[in-house]
Amino acid sequence: MIKILKNLEEVDLEAARILAKQLILKPNSAVALPTGLTPLKMYEAFANFARSKIVELKDVHFFNLDEYIGLTKSDSSSYAYYMRANLFSKIAKVDHRIPKTNTLDPEKEALDYEKAIRSAGGFDLCFLGIGVDGHIGFNEPGTSFSSVTHVANLHSSTIERNTKQIGKSIPRKAITVGIKTIMNSRRIVLMAVGIEKAKVISQALLDDITPELPASVLQLHPNLTILLDEESAQKINSSANEFHLINP
Ligand code: GLP
What we know:
- Helix content is 33%, strand content 17%.
- The chain is of the alpha/beta class.
- The protein has one domain (10-185): Rossmann fold (3-Layer(aba) Sandwich), CATH 3.40.50.1360.
- A seven-stranded parallel sheet has the order 1-10-9-6-2-3-5, covered by helices on one side.
- Helix 1 packs across helix 2.
- 2-amino-2-deoxy-6-O-phosphono-alpha-D-glucopyranose (GLP) is lined by residues 34-38, 65-66, 129-131, 137-138, 158, 162.
């Protein structure tokens, strides 16, 4: 199902509502969380839901999708720092995991992380952003669709964009949840906003499924919700009628 909403605020509010509903129906859900600019307002809205007791969080299992290798959680470029600043400092203590990448053995951490996801029963709900090169999590173009949590080399375009976003240099490697792990989620919500995502959204949803565009694998997921603002939906609007996923 595709929902085209007016702007980033509406996309993020809808995502926060989906998360709240999930936790009302299944309080002990395992939920995968993305980072980046797109979900910032989702976390703001969700923290408000939690504070006003719309949702209880004592049984939930949150997992982040990825983390840069070599950063401590107090480094302001790390996703651990991002999550604390934007969500976890605003709500009561919850069960939350993010790959621990300040380690000499990131491969082992990737294995352990995958095991922890499995022990939690896999993701009930997985929120995803999308990179302009089609990456999901940090699964860059060329990543096998059968990948589980692993160490990933970031593409130069990702490094360039994320460096610009953060305003300082970032590591060249990350640990990311794999594509198979993502595809095993019982429900996936893909979020995109802004004109810079229009091309990749149209490629991911309308073009051939290929590892060269990791997000295209989502066409095969049986329970996919896509939340777009008007700008990121610009190139699929005209093809809406031929698009099998769009809501009639
Ligand atoms: C980063 C993250 C992804 C995120 C993507 C999009 O590289 N690893 O998980 O989805 O960028 O970020 P933004 O929302 O800022 O466009």
